[in-house]
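User: Quick sanity check before I run a bigger batch. Here is a single chain. Can you write out its predicted 3D structure?
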Amino acid sequence: MTTPILPKTAPTARGSGTVEREAVMIEIPIPGHGLLRLEHLLLDYNGTLACDGILLPGVRERLEVLSRSVKIHVLTADTFGTVRSQLVDIPCEVAVLPEEAQDRGKLQYLENLVPDRVVCVGNGRNDRLMLKSAALGIAVILDEGAASSALEAADVICTSIAAALDLLIHPLRLVATLRS
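Assistant: Done. Predicted structure follows.
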């Protein structure tokens, strides 16, 4: 198992009088590509983090680890009405988008962040614009499959959400995939 690269951190004062460490971002130097400075993780829900509205095994633990390094955002139409209950106690922002023009809604959400500081993960045709526009786009092929347009828009393709999230927890794996 590879050792994770720890995120850059800065001290933060909290109300209790103690000082905690708050993560600023993940920095990953990729030879021939440049330095990725990732502050946000933007995730599709159904088909990416969940199947039939239920969070996939191992996702909760990985999101908890990553929440110390990046701000996590989950975008969904919430088809099954389970997103909030499934993500309870996971530090993340949840945005339920209208079913119409979800591709544009996800892109607009991304553009409200700093796109060159965002990694996106998704599987659907409605994820293709955000995957293409982010600093790093990761497409996943799970039980629901993946739209070919999402695969074409992505920088990296993984066959599990665990593998996709582990690329960020263990960035040398990502370096091995993306270097020139």
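Confidence is low (pLDDT under 50) at residues 1-21.

User: Great, the batch can go ahead then.
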